[in-house]
Amino acid sequence: MNEKIKMEKERFYVGDPMEPAAELKFEERGEDMIITHTIVHPEERGKGLATELVRYAEQYAEDHRLEIVPVCSFAKEVLRNR
Question: Could you list the residue ranges forming a coiled coil in this record (predicted)?
């Protein structure tokens, strides 16, 4: 897994925890990992950070035997095109 991606309670992020360059928020409910949104700072867009976060979340879900439920439209698209 990518060392630059960090985890806090129900989120993965890149950069400063207070002002991340990119983040993915999720909720764990039972055996589901609900991806609620991804956001990338405007200056960091186009670098693939959001896609990298979704892939990281996918690996996390697999490692923890969670089923991904993508509410976020971006995450839905990335997971559909894997």
Answer: none
Distances (CA, A) of 80 to 4, 17, 36, 42, 69: 25, 29, 16, 24, 12
* Closest C-alpha among 77, 81, 82 to residue 38: 77
What CATH architecture does domain 5-80 belong to?
3-Layer(aba) Sandwich (3.40)
Q: What is the mean pLDDT of residues 32-47?
A: 96
Where are the domains positioned within the chain? 5-80
Q: Can you give the pLDDT at residue 2? A: 62
pLDDT at 82: 80
3 has a pLDDT exceeding 80? no
Measured CA to CA, the distance from residue 10 to residue 8 in angstroms comes to 6
